[in-house]
Every structure is written in C-alpha cells, then in structure tokens.
Amino acid sequence: MSYPLQRKEIAKGVFFSSIVDKKFKHNRISVNMLLPLNEEKIPHRAIVPYLLRQGTKNCPDFTKLNQRLWNLYGASVEASVDKYGAYQLLCLGITAIDSRFALEGEDMVEKTAALLAEMLLEPNITVGAFPEKDTALERQYLIDTIEAEVNDKRAYAIAQCRQLMCQGEAIALRKLGTVEGAKGITGATAAAAYREAIETAQIEIMFVGSGAPDSAQGIFEKKFAGLQRCPIAVDRSLCRKQIPTGQKELTEPMDVKQGKLVLGFYLGAAENRKDFNEKRMAMAILGGTPMSLLFTNVREKLSLCYYCQSRYDSTTGIMMVDSGIEMENAAAAREEILRQIENLKQGDFDEKIIHETKLILKTALRATADSLSSVESWYLTQILNGTQVSPEEDIDYCAQVTREQITNAANKLLLDTVYTLSPRETSEEGEC
C-alpha cells in the first residue's frame, strides 16, 4: 500500500518529505540543495556533493566512511548535480535495507539518516578548507566530465541549441560550469561554496521507502535546529524562457560523420497540471513515441534522418526537436519537421495515434512507482514545480485530453532557434 506525499518545514527553508510504499525492501534518503545559477560559482558548488561523499570529521577518509557503510549492510551513498530551470541542484543521498531485514533488528532508518546528516553537516573541513588531496581528485573528475560532454554529440547539440536559445538568461548556464571555472577550485573555495549552500539554499530532504520516516525527520530537525539560515526563496518565474523576439540560427562545424539538426521552440511553461498534460500529449504525438508523426514520416517514410524526437521541458517552456542527419538532407528534414508540426496544429492526424500515445504514457507513468529513485525524482519535481500530483492522478489527466486540446497546445509553438552540428568539409573521420 502506498501513502500520499507528506511534507513539513522542519527548519527555515528546510523541508522534509516522505513517500511510504511497503512494496520496497530498501529506504532512500536524499538531501537536495537548490541554489540560483551563478556562472562564477557553478563549478565551486558542483564539486561540493562529491567532497561530502569523501568523508566526515569522524570518518576523514573514504576508507573509514566505506566501513561505516559496510556496517549498514552495504548501504550506498550517491552524489550528483542537476539543474532546475535557473537553479543548480546539489544532491547527496543514501540507500539502505529496511529495518525488517536487519539481522539484529537495528533501526536502519535512524542509522542511515544519522550518517547522511553527519556527511551533510559535519564535513571533513579543516581550517576553512576541504582536504586538498580530495579536492584535487574531485576537481579532475569534474574537469573530465565537462570535457566529455562534447563526446556525446547528440546531447552536445541539444545543449548548444538550448544555450543559444536562452542567451542572456540564467537558464542557459550549464549545471557543471566550464573547464576554466573548474580549474580554479580549491579546498577553500569549495568549503566557501558549501557554507553558502548550507546557509542559503532551499533544502528538500526526501524519504522514499517502506520504513517509518519519523526517526529520520527527527534527526534532521535536531541537526538543523541550531543553524542560522537565510534561505533564498525559489522564484519559478526565473526558470521560464522569455518569449522569443526573433529567430536565431547557428551552424557549428566539427569533426563528425553525422550531422545534428536541433530546432528549439517556445511552447510556454505549464500553467497547471491540465495545461501540462495537454502539452505533454501534443509533444508525445509529435515526436515522443515510435508511432509519432516525426518518427513515422521524417524517419520511416522519407528516410531523412537517423532519429527524430521531440522533448518538452515544462519548467522552462522549451520544446526541442533533435535529429541525426546527412547534411545533404538537412533542408528537407527541416522542412518536413515543420510540415509535421503544422499537421499537428491543424489536427491532421489519426485518432489511433491519440489512443496509442495515451497507452504509452499510461505505461510510463505506472513504471514511475517501480524504483526508489524514480519515485523520488517524480515527487521532487512535483515539489519544485509547486504541485503534489501523483502518477495515478496524471494517468487520469492524460486519459481526458481531447483532440481539440492537443491542437490548441500545438498552436502555441513558436520556432526560436535552429542549430546545426555539421561535419567539416575536410573531415574524413570522427565520432557520430
């Protein structure tokens, strides 16, 4: 049996949320710190979760911390950095078995929450700095990760289009920053970024699992009780793409064999759940499934691309169509993509595709409940968007979307940016 989301403010700007589902055998607790994107500060903040994962004051190296995790029946700690519109999201989480499966009946929720709170609030910082050895290791890992972004040409092309599309807006900034910025990270700058996060971030603590979350909530309440905080309120309006005033185009040559064509559209952020589901349905019919208009026509019938997909970001209001092409087909592929969008706007598509798309979305939404991480991701996104809709409720919303609502949503599309990643004329080899 699953229970609805429970959320409580346990300290100024610190919220504890829990979703209990008895089918799980594990519990996951995560701390998510939301900070406004700042170009200079991004890399210094990005390294923080990874340094917190390295150790605490009581366990100043990863070997000792790993022993603590081993004693918790092989609990695992994960660090990550994400992005929510104009905000950077620093994440630190721990996953462990539920108390039901502990050999000596230990309160595993309490033990794992205590360790996570220790990692978060008692980091291995000495004389105002993280250890330089740990900092150097994680700094190089961060640099390598940023440099590797260009290796995934599809993701790179999408990111480049988004950056051009949102030029001058905070949402254009990348979650990890630049290599140049990362090179300036020291143990002291990372420690300063950590203190800023603890003092000013909106903090969302998430509990997902089969255990009782009360002991975890109590630990974090106690730990945060003595901290002086001045959290920065999240302004969702900053996450929304500005309405385009003109169309932008850019062709970037690179040593690749296959071209990438990305069309960036303004669709508008979702105003409510009904609006979101109408737009999601429209974009799924356009290019979100194997029977979508783009896949069926641009790829299968006309063979103008290797892939062609649409994706909608309801937070920013951006919709993108990305495709892999031979450059001699670039103009024709672009023309056909725009033609299929026009067909969608005019309602020129079969009723069958509406039915099939609803079934696919229904299956995907039901799958959300299959893992701790997907449940956590779903409800964290809900919280950040200011809603508390369950996957089951979204299934009902989807089922009610009509053809007229689909075409109305499609007619809000405005072409903003066209980005092309093109093979160099002299290139004879390279990555796809």
What does this structure look like?
With 432 residues, the protein is α+β, with helices and mostly antiparallel strands. 42% of the residues lie in helices and 21% in strands. The protein contains 16 helices and 11 strands. The protein has a 6-stranded mixed beta sheet, sandwiched between helices. The protein has a 5-stranded mixed beta sheet with strand order 7-11-8-10-9, sandwiched between helices. It is globular, with a radius of gyration of 23 Å.
Provide the structure class: alpha+beta
Query: What percentage of the residues does DSSP assign to strands (E)?
Result: 15-25%
Q: How many helical stretches?
A: 16
Quickly name the level 1 CATH class of the largest domain: Alpha Beta
Output the strand order for the largest sheet: 1-2-6-3-5-4
User: What is the rounded Rg?
Assistant: 23 Å
CATH architecture of the largest domain: 2-Layer Sandwich
Which features does this protein show?
432 residues; alpha+beta; Cytochrome Bc1 Complex, Chain A, domain 1; 6-stranded mixed sheet; 5-stranded mixed sheet; 11 strands; globular; disordered C terminus
